[in-house]
Each structure stands twice: as C-alpha cells, then as structure tokens.
Amino acid sequence: MAIEEVSQMQLLKKPCISVNLPRCMFLPWLTVLLLSANLAFSSSIVKYLPGYDGELPFKLETGYISVGDSELFYYFIESQGNPQEDPLFLWLTGGPGCSSFCGLIYEIGPLEFDINNYTGGLPRLVDYPYAWTKTASIIFLDAPVGTGFSYSTTPKGWPTSDSESAEQSYQFLRKWLDQHTQYLPVQLFIGGDSYSGIIVPLVTKKVLEGIAADVKPQMNLKGYLIGSPRTDSVIDENSKIIFAHRMALISDELYEQLRTSCNENYVNVDPSNTECVMALAYYEKCIKDLFRNDILEPKCAFASPKLSSELDRRSLEEDPADFILSPPRIPEYWCRNFNYVLSYMWSNDLRVQDALQVRKGSILDWSRCNKSLSYTKDILSVVDVHRYLSKHRLQVLVESGDRDMVVPFVGTEYWIKSLNLTVINDWRPWFVDGQIAGYTRKYSENGYRLIYATVKGAGHTAPEYYRRECYEMFQRWVHYYPL
C-alpha cells in the first residue's frame, strides 16, 4: 500500500503517534483517563452511514477491543452469503500504518466511493457488487496501534514493532472470538496485503501454536492469504532490478553490468564498489519517474484539493512540481491518488465518526496511511515462518499484480520456490469471462497447499486495480474450486 507524505504541521496534530511523546498533550489527560476505564470490549451495529442512501444491505459492526494499553478499532462485515458456513477472515492492511478502511473501500469490501460523480462535500458511498464479503465474513482491523481509529491510552503504548503488531493482532483475534463465539465453528483465515506480508504469517503461526497449546478459544484455522506481500527485505529489493529488466525499463547491457558488478546483490552496496554504485545510479535515473505502484499509470504526488478551511489541516504536504488538481471528470488529467482524498474527507467528518461509534477525543486527525508511527521493523524476513507453516495442513493463496514495482512478483516467486514444495499444477493462465486474468501455479506438500497467482496488468495491490478479477480468484480459492 502506497504511503503518502505528511506535513510537519500534520505530525504535530497527531496524538502521541511518534516517539515525540509530548504530542500527547494534544489529547487531554482527562480524556485519556476516561477512555482507559472499562474498555475491554465495545461494539455497535451500524445500519446507516453518512453518504450512503438508505439502510446498509449487510451487517456492519464496529468497535474496539483492548489489547494492553491499546484500543484496537475494527469494522466487521458479516458474509452476505451464508454466515453460518462461509469462512471468517481477519484482514490486515499494510503500510505499516494503513487503515483497514483502505481494504474495505478500495479493495475487497462491499462499498466504494462514487468518484465519477463527485462534485464536492461529503463523498457518496455506493454498492460494489464483487465484494469478498459476498462469500466470507471479514474483520477489517486497524493495526498496529496508531493506525486508523486505533489508539493508546498511555504514552508507553504508542511505540510498536513487527513482532508486537503480530502479537497485538493475535490477542485481538482471541478476544474478538471470545465475544463472537458463533463464528468459532467456521473456517478461519488470516489475510492481508503489502507490508502485512510480514504480519500475516506471524499471526498465523501464533494461531497454530495456540491451537497446539490448547489455548482458548480454540480456533478453526484453515489457512492464510497474502497479496503483493512484503516477505524478505533483501529478496524483495533485489527483485526490483530483475523486474525492471523483464519489463524493459532498463537495457540488457545495464542489467548485465548491474548483475556482474553488484554480484546480484543490490542492498547495502559497498561504497567502494564504484562500478556497482554508478550502475545503480543509472538504474535509478531510468525508473525515477515511474509510478512504482503500477508502472503503467502516470506518476503524480498525492495531495488533497484546496477544500474549505475546516479541511485544510487534513491536507497532505504538497509538491508544486508534482501537484495535480484533477477531479475525475477531466480524464486526461486524472490520477488514481485523487480517490484517496475522499477517504480523508469522509473519515474525518464528525457525522461519520458518530455513525461508526468512534470514541470522541481518541483520534484528532484520521489518516489513510499514518507515516508518523513509532514503529520498529524488527523482522526482516518471514521466509522461515512460511517454511514452518508449510509443515502444517493449510490452504494458502499468494497473489501479485504483475505491474507492481513496490513488491515485484519476481521476488515473491523466488521465495515460494525456496520452500521446495512439489508443483502439482504447473504454470497456466486463469480466466474471467473467457479472458486471461493472470497466471497461476499450484504447490502441495503433506497437506499444505499453496496457490500462487498473478493478476495481469494489476499494480500494488492487485484488488485495488482489478476488483472483479480478484473477487473471482478469491471466491474460487476459498471454496476450493480451481482458478
């Protein structure tokens, strides 16, 4: 998930989200004390949302669950199919720090913004027909703390890390299932995309360990799903050079020079290796003007349009050289990023927060992706975690957009092959409406079944670019049909 830059002024308005703990002064201490009392679990059913006409055609629950000093906010959408039999997903959006609302509204949920008819004011929400919630119940979790509407009740609760985020998500899931025991019998999956490629396998491992130790509640874990997954810092970064060559972004000659001079390792290069350093500089020159999320789309900086004064404080830092004020009704100037500003306008509206039952005073300024987290990336690779998981009977889907340069499919294929699984269905196209939607390969080893699929033409992350195709892929996989 692409993360936008925020201004210094915006950072100062966020309540204690970074290591600069005096920012907590912006959250009155009395409010913190009130929010800290008796908040182990709270939830509400939401039937109406500002911007949506009429009653919601699905069950939406929002709420908080206390995990240590953290109050983790979630949106839960019950399956619109058969909730008693359809699987349950815990969904974690990447970043780290991107709200699960991104997954709900831009990727896999039953709603989307009516961007094509937007003329100002509160954005309108409309139904999206190819939602994953048509066939699965999904908990969209704002994690780690500081993401979306999740917050800490104490200064010490704000700092977190990969390992702490995984533990928080696991403890959240345990407590949520304690309060929703009707979902214990259904199959459970852990899912997420982008940077959550680090967190999802860690949470899955914790669930497995909890099952083995007979920790209550006993979860009916069936598998996990990761999209465009960050997995290994070296593999993912090195794969960008190979991807650039395959996509004809760099010449054969430059690729050979990079490969030989850098010894196929482009991370933490020795500065004394001048040939490698110079080749990398030329490589950067070749790709610097690409939109890394999707190399086929125009590059344009995220910036909110000049709105009313009450919304100016929510704007992101603007770069005049890249700024594009482009309502969608001017298609030749349209940028995908324009869609994102609607989430700021909608989620920061007090009527929306009241409808979602967001606790007053807990978050002063909602961000789609919060880049000011006090967050330590303490786990650089989860390949060994996948290797551990491959010893268990799990159903796994790994999907990648094949025009994604944030986490290229090249690196994903590399670490999957390193697991040494048996290929049972070799590389082939998969189809939607008679058209090739991507390519897939199926692996199996002692009950562990992994399906890898590309989404043709999709960027980072694939469901945001090709929602229909990704829905078809998901519903076939989750119901054990071949892609």
UniProtKB/TrEMBL annotation:
Which Pfam family, just one, is annotated for this protein?
A: Peptidase_S10
**Keywords for this protein:** Glycoprotein, Signal
**GO BP field:** proteolysis; secondary metabolic process
One GO molecular function term of this record is: serine-type carboxypeptidase activity
Q: What InterPro entries does this protein's entry cite?
A: AB_hydrolase_fold, Peptidase_S10
Q: Does the keyword Signal apply?
A: yes
Mind telling me which Gene3D superfamilies this protein's record contains? alpha/beta hydrolase
For this chain, the family text in UniProt reads: Belongs to the peptidase S10 family.
The cross-references to PANTHER family, in alphabetical order and at most eight, read: SERINE CARBOXYPEPTIDASE-LIKE 18, SERINE PROTEASE FAMILY S10 SERINE CARBOXYPEPTIDASE
Q: Know the name of this protein?
A: Serine carboxypeptidase-like 18
